Amino acid sequence: MSAKIVDNPFFVLGVSPDASRIEIEREAQKLLGMLELEFPAARVYMTPLGEQHRTAEAVRAAVAALRDPYQRLVAELWARHAPAQPMPQRGATERMGWTPPIRRSLGWKP
Amino acid sequence: MPETPLFVGIDLGTTNSAAAVFDGEHVSVVRNAQGASVTPSVVRIDKQGRVTVGTRARRFIEQDPANTAAEFKRLMGTDEQIEFPAAAVKKKPQELSAEVLKALRQDIADQLGASIERAVISVPALFELPQSSATSDAARLAGFQRVELLQEPIASALAAGWRAEQDGAGTWLVFDFGGGTFDASLLETRDGLLRVVGHDGDNFLGGRDFDWRITEHLASMLSVVPSRKNPEHASALRALRLVAEDAKIELSRSDRAQVTLAQPLSIDGQDVDVDLELTRGTVEGLCAPLVDRALDVCVRLLTANGLGPGRLARIVLVGGPTVMPLVRARVAARLEAPIAEGHDPMTLVAQGAALYAATAGLDGRAPAQAFAPGRQVWLQYPAVSSDLTPHVVGKFVGDNPPAKVKLVRNDGAWSSADATVGEDGTWLTSVTLLPRRACTFTIEAKTMGGDNIAVSPPSLTIVQGLTIGDPPLSRTLGVALANGHVQTYLERGAPLPARRTFTHHTVETVAKGSSESVLRIPIVQGELEAANLCRLVGTLDIGGDVVKDTVPTGSAVEVTIELDRGGRLSARALVPVIGQVFEQVAHLLVPDAAPEALDSAIRDLRRQLMDLRTDAFRHGLGQVIEKLDRLEARLSEAERDIDAAHGGDADAAQRARRALLDVDATMAEADLARKWPELDAASRQAAITASSTVGFHGTDAERALLNDVLAAMEKARKDRDAPELERQMRLAQRLSSAAFNRTPEAWEWYFEDAASEVSRARDLPRANKLVSEGKVAIDRGDAEELRRVVKALWQLLPEDSEARKRGFDSGVR
User: Fold this and answer.
1) Tell me, what's the ipTM?
2) B:731-760 residues touching chain A, CB 8 A cutoff
3) A21 and B193 in contact by Cβ < 8 A?
4) Mean predicted lDDT score pLDDT of chain B
C-alpha cells in the first residue's frame, strides 16, 4: 500500500492536489524534457516517506492516471491523507489472496 | 529543403489506403498518380515479376485473381504466404503491405518533392502485438527509417477534433466502419486535450460483410447457385463480389443499379449469364441488420459510460460504408445526435495520423545532414501543445556554456525573459503561443559579457492545437504463471512507452546442456485473470542448451517487458544465479487456424453454450440469456467463416479463430453471471471482513479508499455486473491484506497456513527445517526472521499441473 504514497502521481509530478489539468500537463512535459537532458534536479522527488527516484516512465504513468477522473480522485485522497510512517510492502512474487483468518471465516480450508 | 515541417500520416487499410501531410497549420491529402485520394490495397505480380499496386492492380482481381492479392492486411502477423504462380514467388503479408506503403511513399515524394523517411501508420484498435509488429516490418521494407503506429479510432478522433470549433468541448462519438472491423470510440475534448473515454467494437463486422451479403443475394438469383464451401466456386464468387461492390457504391447515389458481367461465369462446368438488377431498397434491406448490430455496440458503449440518447454533441462517421445514405440516416435516428459534416470519411484516418506525427515530433524528412554553424544545444519541447504557455528545456553541449538565453517569436510581437544558463549548460524557460498557429522562435544566446553567440539549431517551432497524450495500450499485457493465473505487467490504457519488471521464481530445474529442459515464460494479452482466456503473443524460452550453468528450482528470474510508443514488444529475463540475460522472444505469430481444429472448437463451444443456456433458463436470468443469444449469433457467423475456411479462405479462418476466442472469453463472463448468487454472498462477506480489518488496523487513507470500494461494490451489485463486482472484491481483499499485514500476528498466521501444507513441499527436509526455524522465530518474537521463513516456505510448495497447462506451460510463478 505504500506504493499509493511513493508512486502518488501528485508527488511524482511535484504538483499540488488542486492543480488544474493544464498545469499538470505542462509540468509533466517539462519534467520529461528535463529527464531527457539529465537535469540532476529532475531525478528525485519528495514524498512523506522520503526522497524517491524519478523516471520518465513514472512521469508518463502519473499524468495518464490524473487524466482519468476516478484515478485522480483516489490520488488526491492519498496525497492529502498520506501517513508519515513506512508500511510493509508486498512484492509481486507473494501470494495475493485472503488472509488465513478471513479464509477460515468464509468456511474455506486453511 | 522546404522550410515548414512535413508530418506524414498513412492509413494502411484492408481495402483502401491513403496518405496525408500536415505542415503545422493545414492538413492535405496526398493524391496518387491517378489523381485519387485513396489507393486500393491490392498488389499484382505478373509473369516478369513486375509489381503493380492500387487501381491498376485492382482491375486484375477478376481477370487474373491468382496473381492479384487483396485484403492481405487481415493475414498480417500470421505465417501464411501468398502465392503468385505466374512469377513463381511467394510473399508474406507484410511484404505486400510494404508494396502499398512504397507506392504511397512515392506519391508523397512526387507531390512534395521531398523523400519521406519517417511517418505515422494507423492500425486497428484491437490489433494484437504480432499484427502490429508485422506492420512495423512492412514499413521498414518500404524504406521508412522510423515509424510510429497509432490506433485508427484515435487518428480519426484527432482529425475530427482538430477541425472542430474552438468551443467544441463536449462528448462525441467516432463511428468507424472499416473494411473488416467496426470501432466505436467515445471521446471528450476539454482544455484542448483529447481523451478517449471509452472504446467498444466488433472485430468481425465491416464493409466486407456488406459486400458478402449482396454477393450471396446475387448468387442466389443465378441459375446455378455457387457456394462458399466449394473451392471450385471461388473464382465465380470473386467476380460476383467485385460487381456487388460497384453496385453498392452506385446505389449510394441512385435508386437502381444494373449488375452485368461481360463474360458468363463458369459454375460446375456450366456457363451462367449474369444480368441482374439491384434496387436501393433491396440492398438496404440486406445491410440494415449489420448497421443495427453496429448501433447496438454504440448504445452499449454509451450506456456503460452513463450517457443516454441525445447526450452526444456530435457523431463523426469514418470509413467507406458510412457513405451509404442508409447508414447516415439510421445512425442519426437511433443515437439522436447530429452527424458532423465536412469530414471525408475515406481519408480522415490518414489526416489524423499526420496530425499525430506532429504531436510525436516525427518530421517526415530525414534529419538535417549538416549542423548549422554555432554553439550546439539539445532542446526538449512539445512539437504540438494545447497549452498556450508550454516550457522549453535546453542544454548546451560542452564546457563554458553561454550565460543567458532568450526566445524571440518570429512575428516579433513576443519574446521571453532572459533565462539563466546553469554551469552544466542547462536552462528552462516558457514561451507564449498564438492559438491554432505554428509559431517559430529564434534562440538568442549571450555570453557573460553580453556578446551574441550563434546557436545550432537556431530556432524551434511549436504548433498550438489539440493534443492527445501518450497512446494508450489497447490490451492488458502480462506473464502467464504456472498456477494458470496471469501476472499483469501493463494494464490496458497504460501510456506508452512503458516498461515493467517483476521477479518470478522457477518451478523446475533447467539442467545445463539438456535441450529437453526449457524454462518457458509465456507473454499473454487479455483482460481476464485466467491465462487460458488470454492470447499468447510471445514466449521467452530459456533452454538447457543456452544456460551457462544449471538453474535450480526456485531461482529468481527478473522479467522485464517493454513496449515502445508503437506497441512493439520486447522482453528480457535476467537470471541472477547464473548472471545471464535472455532476450530472444519467439513465436510472435498469430497461431495458425486449421479448419479441422476450428470445427472441434466450435463443437465444444456449442455444447458449453447449451449448458449455460439450460442453467440460465432454470434460474430465470434474463440478462444472461440475452448475452447467450448474442453469442449464438456470433457462433453461427463463425460457422459460415469455417465453411469458407474449408473452401481454402485463410482469411476467413483467422476471422473464425478470433471470433471463437472472443466467444470463449464472453462465455467465461456469462458463467460468472450465472454464479451470481454465490458471488453476491461472497462479496457481502468480503465487505464485512474488509471493514473490520481496515477499521482496526488500516490507515486513514485506507479507510477512505475502502469507502470508495464499498460504494463501487454496491453499484456493481445493483447493476448485476459480475466482472466488476469481482474486481472490486479483489480490491477490498487487497486493502484487507495490507491492513492485516500490519498486525503482529499476521506472519504467524501465514506461517501456520504454510506449515500445514508442508507434506506437499518439494524439498521436504529443507521445508521441515524451515518449519522448525519458524517456530523458534515465533518464540523469540523475531518478526523479520519469521517473514523470511514464510517466504522461503512458499517457494517450496508445488503448483498444480492442470493449472500449469492452462498457463501455457509457464515455468515461473
Assistant:
1) 0.73
2) 733-738, 740-742, 746, 749-750, 752-753, 756
3) yes
4) 83
